[in-house]
């Protein structure tokens, strides 16, 4: 049974090397895809020049509507983390915005075809690209939740500060009022319990 499973794995591996693997790419995630593809290929131990060569020889990225194709350099310009210069890399600049590289084409999808060759296991590479994209999506969601929490904390602190200032002002006003009217001020002045007219002390009670 173990031998059979291993033979099956060998067969799958052999198939991966002889069959092209195709994916449809939503252009909204084109830059992320290109970046993860270049990174995943590099992680298989290929030097930068080999990554470019693999992209040039084995990867075809074509618009499903207008049929324009991206070169390895287009893909690498798209993978670059810097903002592409529309003058130097007009295709990458348009793709980065989620549009087809051809000005005027309204397609949102490209067909990615990875041809066999160079010992690249495309199923494995594309699975790695998808895993990286998933990790980035959940990281982005975590960051967003963290930002929302931080904003909430800031709002609460501001509200608490405003309440404290309001209470402080009320206390000062109360203090001024008590001072002016002769009322009690805790720790400073005891309340006058009663007032007596001194003249009334000398008055004799009526007989
Ligand atoms: Zn197009």
How would you explain this protein's 3D organization?
- It is a single chain.
- Strand 2 (59-63) and strand 3 form a beta hairpin.
- The protein has a domain at 2-143.
- Residues 1-11 have low confidence and may be disordered.
- 57% of the residues lie in helices and 9% in strands.
- The chain has helices at 2-18, 30-43, 48-58, 72-79, 90-96, 122-181, and strands spanning 21-26, 59-63, 69-70, 109-114.
- It has a four-stranded antiparallel β-sheet with strand order 1-4-2-3.
- The protein has 207 residues and is α+β, with helices and mostly antiparallel strands.
Structural class: alpha+beta
**Helix-strand string:** HEHHEEHHEH
- Binned, the helix content reads 55-70%
Gross morphology is rod-shaped
Are any ligands bound, and if so which? zinc ion
Largest sheet: 4 strands, antiparallel
Any chance you could write out the topology, listing elements then pairs?
Elements: H1 2-18, E1 21-26, H2 30-43, H3 48-58, E2 59-63, E3 69-70, H4 72-79, H5 90-96, E4 109-114, H6 122-181
Antiparallel strand pairs: 1-4, 2-3, 2-4
Summary of the model, kept short:
The chain is an alpha+beta fold. Helix content is 57%, strand content 9%. The chain has a four-stranded antiparallel β-sheet.
